[in-house]
Specification:
Blueprint: H1 2-13, H2 27-40, H3 54-66, H4 69-84, E1 90-99, E2 107-108, E3 116-125, E4 130-137, H5 146-151, E5 161-165, H6 172-180, E6 183-187, H7 203-212, E7 220-221, H8 226-248
Parallel strand pairs: 1-5, 1-7, 5-6
Antiparallel strand pairs: 1-3, 2-3, 3-4
Helix pairs in contact: 1-4, 4-8
């Protein structure tokens, strides 16, 4: 489903020309080669396409990224999912991605002795489907990220949906932000005791990050620019969303 939506957008953005040399790299081969790199984490030079060089696949992926095709395909599939299912609650959390070659959107990770990293924040529903993704430098506080995460939600959730977060988001300003966006505030307070029961619903966002880690290219940030890393993340999220649609819808 996600692949078919992406195929339609690629054909619309880059139509085949009658004149000139025929294209040796078709959509199916390019998609499978890109997905292989994202799943295995292999280096591009170790990729062996059937009819072209790995550089052609690399350039094709960046053509799709510059046109915003991965983001648009995921947004279309998420709106389809939203029409079929109503989420029961929403969870927000963040995870650190260690930096290798990134030059933008990096900061000192306070949990890793100040090494450079990128923070990936996500807002997911009760099945772990991400409604919003945000990349920021690692040294930005979670307390300041709730507003941009909720503002970047692709399709709005029903009014009054409970929003669960950990204590890192606890502030009076964030509670007002939840109210302004139509969510029911379920932010854990700082002076409460942790228990398995309090974190039962919030565990769905932790499972989302663990599922993302199965795509080896996303564990460490090898991509120079954050837009490339986000496109690969949206590709992985599109496959996750397709599985959820087939399972529950």
């Amino acid at each position: 489903m996600f692949k078919n939506i992406l195929r339609i957008q690629v054909e619309e953005a880059f139509p085949a020309h009658v004149k000139g040399r025929p294209r040796l790299l078709g959509f199916d081969d390019a998609y499978e080669d890109i997905l292989q790199v994202v799943r295995t984490g292999m280096q591009w030079r170790h990729l062996h396409p059937k009819r072209v060089s790995y550089i052609t696949v690399f350039k094709t992926m960046h053509m799709w990224i510059d046109a915003g095709l991965f983001r648009n395909a995921y947004e279309r599939l998420l709106r389809l999912y939203r029409r079929r299912r109503r989420p029961r609650y929403c969870c927000v959390d963040s995870s650190f991605v260690k930096n290798i070659y990134g030059v933008d959107c990096v900061g000192r990770n306070p949990t890793d002795r100040g090494r450079l990293a990128t923070k990936l924040s996500a807002a997911v529903d009760d099945l772990g489907v991400p409604y919003s993704l945000l990349c920021t430098p690692a040294n930005q506080s979670d307390m300041r990220l709730l507003e941009p995460i909720l503002a970047g939600v692709i399709t709005a959730m029903p009014a009054g949906t409970p929003l669960y977060t950990d204590k890192g988001y606890d502030s009076a300003a964030n509670r007002r932000i939840c109210l302004a966006h139509g969510y029911h505030d379920r932010i854990f307070r700082r002076r409460t005791t942790n228990s398995r029961r309090t974190h039962a619903k919030r565990g769905v966002v932790e499972r989302f990050f663990s599922w993302i880690d199965k795509y080896r290219r996303l564990i460490l940030r090898y991509e120079r620019y954050v837009t490339t890393y986000m496109a690969m993340t949206q590709l992985a999220c599109g496959i996750l969303l397709e599985a959820r649609i087939n399972a529950v819808c």
